[in-house]
Every structure is written in structure tokens, then in C-alpha cells.
Write a structure and sequence with these properties.
This protein is α+β, with helices and mostly antiparallel strands and 327 residues long. The chain is built from 8 helices and 7 strands.
């Protein structure tokens, strides 16, 4: 009797105990896994690979649930998207890309969608409209997650083409030999033809960029002080490129592969990959324009490392989207 009472009392104590940030995150991630499985029809093996990557990290998810304050709910997103989230899906694109919510990468000036050799996710991972983007992901983890679901990390020129509305040939200036020299040559080439996914000039109010940092967020931007205060993906229908790719501006900044040599290009089948490149802007940009974010702009080597380094960078506003090579 005494033993039974003690077990009962212990159960009450456990129920009353506060849930830790990691426990809250695990609960949120379980719901996310179910949504990913249903929308993208993952196999049991794919889902298990995905779960293991999240579990090894302890931080990957849609932000620390205890401090994150999203400015819009998924329900509000669904209500403001004409036709609802399913309207973002294209039967033609699904046939070309082999997955829902992907867009073919091609140059409309000389090609048709069926000429594409690669596709890109329309939304930040998990690539489901009206779902919060996954953040706190290292570049190496982003590459692993994309591989787990049958895709790969995008090369920088693919992301840039998806944003600008035309995939152009790779333009990395490999012969210059350093990240800074290659970046400067590339930015100089495109600086006179700046564009954003939605048009030729920067605009406020078009993309998911009117949120703000947590009051406790400063300095290093830690998991317990900085909420990932993003919007649901696709909640700004006009924030898209002519290729049909959304949220390239605002919401989460995005990991990409910046090859330092031709044999480091993911688009050519390389498993080595190059160095980290953080693309786009993030959720505070309408309040504070932190740096340029035009489509083909390549950033300084912030938090730079090899993509596959175990110490590659992660933070509260940094996510990713995947690409996929097609036959």
C-alpha cells in the first residue's frame, strides 16, 4: 500500500515538474515529423534517418518553444493564402521534380520547365506551406537532412537563380583561389543588375520580415535567450520569384554550399562540398536592414567553415532549403 502511494505521489511530482526546453522541443519535433511524413510521404527508413539527425543535435527544430513568439499562426497563414496552402502545389512541377512543393530550376529566356536538370524546394525546410521553418541547424546537418529525404544541399548559384528567376551557368571564379576574391568578383559582375525575388527594388512589407528579436536576445544569440520568431512559410504570397520559390527574403536565412573548386559542386554530384554560404535575409529585415540581400549577392565569409565540418555554424534565424538533381 505504501509503495503504491509513493508511486502515485511520484507521478504527481513528475506531472508538476516544469518541462525543460529540450523536452518541449522534442514534443514539438514529434508533431513536425508526423507532418513531414504525411506531406512528403517519407518511408519509415527516411523518417528514422531524419529523426536521428534531430536527436543527435538536441537543438534542431522550429525554435525553443519556451521563448519563441511567432507573429503569425499557421491557421492565420492558411486563411490569408488565396486557395489555401494546397494552391502552392503544381502537378506539372511534381511530375518534373518527383516531390510536392518543388520548383524546376531553368532559364526561361532559353528553356522550358521540362529542360530543368535540378529542382529547389519552394519553401524553407520542412518545405510545407504554413509551417514554421526549421532552424538551429548546422550546415553539415542541413546537408545530412537533405540527403535523408532524397535531396541535397543547393549550390549558391542554384539558390541565386531560384531567387532571380533564371538559372545561369555556375559563376564561382575558381581561379582566384580565396573566398573573398571569388565573392568580390562575383558581386562586382552582378552589382549593376540587382534584383529581389519580387522585383527590381527592395520593398518592405512584401516578405516575412516584420518580426523582431526576443528581448533577451543579444551577444552570441543562445538557444535559451533568442526565440526563432519566424512566420509560417508561404504566409506572404507575393514574396516569390518568377520560378515560384517563396520566402527567399525574410523568415530564415539559409545555408548553401559555396564550392571552392569544380569537384565540390553538389549540382555535379560531389559529396565533398565546399564552404558555408549564408543566403537571403531573415525575420527582422523590415525593422532593421542588417545587410544587402539582393538575389545574387554573396555574403562575407561569416562564421565560415567547410560545409561538412562538425563545427559549422547554427543559430536561431538560420535554416535551409534543399535541391534535387533530376534526370
Amino acid at each position: 500500500m505504501k509503495s503504491a502511494f509513493m508511486k502515485f505521489a511520484l507521478g504527481l511530482l513528475l506531472l508538476a515538474a516544469p518541462v525543460t526546453a529540450q523536452e518541449s522541443l522534442q514534443q514539438a519535433n514529434q508533431a513536425l515529423f508526423e507532418e513531414i511524413k504525411q506531406v512528403h510521404r517519407l518511408s519509415s527508413a527516411e523518417l528514422q534517418r531524419l529523426q536521428k539527425i534531430f536527436e543527435r543535435s538536441g537543438y534542431i527544430g522550429q525554435g525553443n518553444p519556451r521563448i519563441t513568439r511567432h507573429p503569425m499562426t499557421p491557421a492565420e497563414c492558411r486563411a490569408r493564402v488565396p486557395g489555401g496552402p494546397e494552391s502552392y502545389a503544381s502537378a506539372r512541377n511534381a511530375r518534373i521534380c518527383g516531390d510536392k512543393f518543388m520548383a524546376p530550376l531553368y532559364d526561361p529566356r532559353t528553356q522550358k520547365p521540362g529542360d530543368a536538370k535540378a529542382c529547389i524546394d519552394q519553401f524553407e525546410f520542412p518545405n510545407i506551406p504554413c509551417t514554421y521553418p526549421v532552424v538551429w541547424t548546422k550546415a553539415v546537418e542541413a546537408a545530412q537532412i537533405c540527403a535523408a529525404v532524397g535531396k541535397r544541399l543547393c549550390d549558391a548559384h542554384e539558390w541565386e537563380g531560384a531567387c532571380a528567376g533564371a538559372l545561369e551557368p555556375p559563376d564561382y571564379f575558381f581561379g582566384l583561389g580565396s573566398v573573398a576574391a571569388m565573392r568580390n568578383a562575383h558581386n562586382s559582375k552582378y552589382s549593376k543588375t540587382k534584383s529581389w525575388s519580387y522585383g527590381p527594388a527592395y520593398q518592405r512589407g512584401i516578405c516575412a520580415a516584420a518580426s523582431q528579436k526576443s528581448a533577451s536576445c543579444s551577444g552570441g544569440g543562445g538557444f535559451n535567450s533568442c526565440g526563432s520568431n519566424t512566420y509560417p512559410t508561404g504566409s506572404f504570397p507575393d514574396c516569390k520569384s518568377t520560378l515560384g520559390v517563396y520566402d527567399i527574403h525574410g523568415n530564415a536565412a539559409e545555408h548553401m554550399n559555396l564550392p571552392m573548386a569544380p569537384n565540390q559542386m553538389a549540382s555535379r554530384g560531389s559529396q565533398k562540398l565546399g564552404v558555408t554560404e549564408m543566403k537571403g535575409s531573415w525575420f527582422i529585415f523590415d525593422r532593421y536592414y542588417a545587410h544587402p540581400d539582393w538575389c545574387r549577392w554573396r555574403a562575407p565569409y561569416w562564421h565560415g567553415s567547410p560545409v561538412m565540418s562538425p563545427s559549422s555554424h547554427a543559430n536561431y534565424h538560420l535554416g535551409f532549403r534543399c535541391c534535387k538533381t533530376i534526370d
